[in-house]
Amino acid sequence: MKMGRRRGQVGGWPRGRSGVTERGQRRRVLVIEDEVIVGMLIEDMLEELGCEVAAISTHIEEALQLARAPDIDLAILDINLGGKQSFPVADVLKSRGVPFMFATGYGAHILKPPYSGTPTLQKPFQLDDLQRMLSLSGFQAGGEWPA
């Protein structure tokens, strides 16, 4: 587990935002993933796409705390965290207006309302898959949000 590791609406991301915050910082992504190696791979991919990983969490209790952090711009949630589902984390993010997507080996077909239609990455995925999903959700590689 990596608690708070820092370096350097259900569905879709808001449009009209740049990939850099008003303070000139990269967009910060919260990664919720119970497999440490997979979390590290996602971190590398996000950094290659111009994002900064705000934190990686492997446990639901910690993920709930991190989802309340004020410095998160978006999140990627593994649905199954050691036998517990991450939907409560999605609820916190949704209530705060923080965009998110799911990453799962089960596929988007397992999502029930109110989560059906949420952007979902099918595991295993590659950099191109993550880039495509972010792009479909309004994010472009290099940290740019379309106007």
Give a topology summary:
Layout lengths: L27 E5 L3 H13 L3 E6 L2 H7 L7 E5 L1 E2 L2 E2 L1 H10 L3 E5 L15 E3 L4 H10 L11
Parallel strand pairs: 1-2, 1-3, 3-6, 6-7
Antiparallel strand pairs: 4-5
Strand numbers in spatial order across the main sheet: 2-1-3-6-7
Question: Rg from C-alpha positions?
Answer: 14 Å
Distance between the termini: 37 Å
Overall geometry comes to: globular
What is the helical fraction, as a range of percent?
25-40%
**Order of secondary-structure elements:** EHEHEEEHEEH
Mind describing the biggest β-sheet? 5 strands, parallel
Structural class: alpha/beta
Characterize the structure shown:
The protein has 147 residues and is of the alpha/beta class. It is built from four helices and seven strands. The protein has helices spanning 36-48, 60-66, 87-96, 127-136; strands spanning 28-32, 52-57, 74-78, 80-81, 84-85, 100-104, 120-122. The strands form two sheets. It has a five-stranded parallel beta sheet with strand order 2-1-3-6-7, sandwiched between helices. Strands 4-5 form a two-stranded antiparallel sheet. Helix 1 (36-48) links the parallel strand 1 (28-32) and strand 2. The longest helix is centred in the N-terminal third of the chain and has 13 residues, at 36-48. The radius of gyration is 14 Å and the shape is globular.
